[in-house]
Design goal:
3 helices; rod-shaped; alpha+beta; about 200 residues
């Protein structure tokens, strides 16, 4: 926010003040949200290190605010999971810039219908646990079926939403504000010149 007032002296020596001119210039703002999807094998009933019907799993989504604005109403709605009646809950609905939170489903017992619906990708997920030996509780890659030692794969690309800076309706107002500031500067210059002439006349 920039505020300016121009002052000058009249020929009679009185102080003149202009109206206050204020210009508000929005900073560049950005909105972004990244999402990483994990599947955790909680119970491996047949101990084969793969997700099979009868095993128990939990889906976890790590949401990170990659923009400069606080996000509100953040929620995870995975179409495949919703179609299978599996809800994902988040601990809160706001995310400050650079903040992350984990949203998870309740433990779920895998069915043959889940496998047919593609909840685990085209191939059984590969464990990312150390030593290459899958263990219950280790993280599994979600839909891509690609091994990730970091415990998960990016589920969709990072999204940058629409630009939220200055709207087109504000631009004429900004132009008027700049013109007022320049007018104030001109008044100051004229006032100084008038005062200088008065001093010379004395």
């Amino acid at each position: 926010t920039s505020t300016a007032v121009a002052t000058a002296l009249s020929t009679a020596g009185r102080t003149l003040l202009s109206n206050t001119s204020t210009v508000v210039v929005p900073a560049l703002l950005s909105v972004g949200l990244s999402l990483v999807r994990h599947v955790t094998l909680l119970v491996d009933r047949d101990r084969n290190g793969r997700v099979d019907p009868g095993d128990q799993v939990r889906w976890t989504f790590v949401a990170t605010n990659t923009g400069t604005l606080t996000l509100h109403g953040v929620a995870v709605n995975d179409g495949l999971l919703l179609a299978s009646g599996i809800a994902v809950r988040c601990p809160r609905s706001t995310l400050a810039p650079a903040e992350s939170m984990s949203c998870s489903s309740a433990p779920h017992t895998v069915t043959q219908a889940d496998m047919a619906a593609g909840l685990f990708g085209g191939a059984p997920p590969v464990s990312s646990s150390s030593g290459g030996q899958p263990q219950p509780g280790s993280l599994f890659v979600g839909t891509t079926g690609v091994t990730s030692s970091g415990g998960g794969a990016t589920y969709g690309a990072e999204v940058t939403l629409a630009y939220t800076g200055v709207s087109s309706g504000l631009r004429p107002m900004l132009g008027l504000g700049v013109a007022l500031v320049l007018w104030g500067a001109l008044l100051v210059a004229v006032g100084r010149r008038a005062r200088s002439e008065v001093n010379r006349a004395r």
